[in-house]
């Protein structure tokens, strides 16, 4: 009998309800909610700034740059809203699984408690003190006293665990209801932003026609891109000088050791291509037959189908995701040793700032952000303060 009681206590000690696993959807939801609010604030600030310039700058080139900046922010907002919806669905599934596990445990506890009540009824209703006093020996009295304490402990644990499971199940059901309401709100917000995005894209298309049909507007647009080159140079300079540089270098070194990869500088001619497509503009100075001027291409332009995946050419750390005039949405990756790769005109960005990426990881998809010639990828390699010819670093096709 005593062994049976001990085994029951052991079983009860094993009863536990679901705890948060390594993937914490609640933390993801909080992170994405903050990212969404930050983007909303940035959109509000950008629109306010752009409206203040509208009366002073009426050119199609300026209008389209402003539109692209707004489109970039709205696209990123839609992506974050989608991520939060997915996290919400994940959290709901997780909570439902936990409720199911708790309900099974609750059923088991209730059966045990019911069996215990039936046994007490069948054996009579003598009080604990009567059972001890009716013992025929000192040893039996001691045994009965211990037995009564153990049974009382089992009863208390049963009651406590049943109450805890009931409260836990109720709390999780309330959480599911709250997340469902939030999911509906997120979906509504995403639809609203999608409608806004479609409107801005139609407006951008009209402005693009003006640029294509006017040398003056085209010249102004190229000027915008030249200003963007300066902005990118300043940005790279800040990245190289920021306080996180040493920490990034150490993380990149550990990543290379773990993956057993070489340094960027030793991989000339061996890097995989960032996207499939045709190179329509090579590195270096190019003659523009329309404007009859020479322009400098600091990278290569790869023409492909809209939505073509864009991948990291080598492992590293994402330092920047932003919008730059003439470049549109850009992603900058630090590969260590003062080597950086830049991916621009991208859309549907799949990575985050400070994320560690490996060669072949999808960063985004090919789009026309900042481009007047349709979907393409503008790809650059910077090393040791120099803009390098990417085709000399990529594997020969």
Structure description:
- The protein is an alpha+beta fold and 397 residues long.
- It folds into two domains: 213 residues, Helix Hairpins; 167 residues, Glucose Permease (Domain IIA) (Distorted Sandwich), CATH 2.70.70.
- 59% of the residues lie in helices and 16% in strands.
- It is built from eight helices and 13 strands.
- The strands form three sheets. Strands 1, 4, 6, 7, 8, 10, 12 and 13 form an eight-stranded antiparallel beta sheet that branches.
- A hairpin with a 4-residue loop joins strand 2 and strand 3.
- Helix 1 runs parallel beside helix 5, helix 2 runs antiparallel to helix 3 and helix 3 runs antiparallel to helix 5.
- The radius of gyration is 33 Å and the shape is elongated.
- The N terminus is likely disordered.
Explain briefly what this protein structure is.
With 397 residues, this protein is an alpha+beta fold. It has helices spanning 2-14, 25-54, 60-122, 128-133, 138-212, 215-241, 245-259, 390-393, and strands spanning 278-281, 284-288, 293-297, 300-303, 309-311, 316-324, 328-334, 339-344, 346-347, 356-357, 362-366, 376-383, 386-388. The strands form 3 sheets. Strands 1, 4, 6, 7, 8, 10, 12 and 13 form an 8-stranded antiparallel beta sheet that branches.
């Amino acid at each position: 009998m005593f062994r049976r009681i001990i085994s029951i206590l052991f079983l009860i000690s094993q009863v536990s309800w679901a705890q948060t696993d390594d993937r914490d959807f609640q933390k993801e939801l909080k992170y994405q909610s903050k990212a969404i609010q930050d983007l909303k604030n940035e959109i509000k600030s950008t629109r306010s700034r752009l409206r203040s310039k509208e009366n002073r700058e009426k050119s199609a080139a300026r209008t389209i740059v402003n539109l692209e900046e707004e489109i970039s922010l709205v696209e990123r907002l839609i992506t974050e809203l989608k991520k939060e919806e997915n996290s919400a669905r994940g959290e709901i599934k997780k909570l439902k699984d936990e409720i199911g596990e708790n309900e099974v445990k609750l059923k088991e506890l209730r059966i045990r408690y019911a069996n215990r009540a039936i046994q007490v009824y069948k054996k009579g209703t003598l009080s604990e003190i009567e059972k001890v006093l009716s013992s025929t020996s000192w040893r039996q009295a001691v045994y009965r006293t211990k037995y009564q304490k153990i049974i009382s402990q089992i009863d208390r644990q049963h009651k406590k665990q049943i109450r805890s499971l009931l409260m836990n199940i109720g709390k999780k059901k309330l959480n599911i209801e709250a997340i469902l309401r939030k999911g509906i709100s997120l979906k509504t917000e995403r639809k609203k932003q999608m409608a806004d995005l479609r409107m801005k894209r139609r407006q951008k298309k009209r402005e693009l026609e003006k640029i294509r049909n006017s040398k003056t507007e085209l010249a102004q647009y190229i000027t915008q891109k030249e200003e963007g080159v300066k902005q990118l140079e300043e940005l790279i300079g800040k990245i190289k000088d920021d306080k996180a540089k040493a920490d990034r270098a150490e993380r990149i070194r550990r990543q290379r050791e773990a993956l057993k990869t070489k340094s960027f500088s030793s991989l000339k001619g061996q890097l995989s291509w960032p996207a499939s497509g045709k190179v329509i503009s090579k590195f270096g100075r190019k003659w523009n037959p329309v404007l009859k001027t020479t322009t400098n291409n600091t990278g290569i332009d790869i023409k492909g189908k809209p939505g073509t995946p864009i991948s990291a050419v080598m492992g590293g750390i994402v330092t920047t995701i932003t919008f730059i005039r003439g470049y549109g949405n850009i992603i900058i990756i630090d590969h260590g040793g003062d080597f950086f790769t830049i991916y621009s005109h991208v859309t549907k960005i799949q990575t985050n700032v400070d994320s560690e990426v490996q060669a072949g990881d999808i960063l985004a998809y090919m789009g026309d952000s900042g481009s007047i010639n349709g979907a393409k990828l503008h790809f650059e390699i910077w090393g040791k303060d120099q803009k390098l010819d990417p085709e000399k670093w990529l594997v020969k096709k």
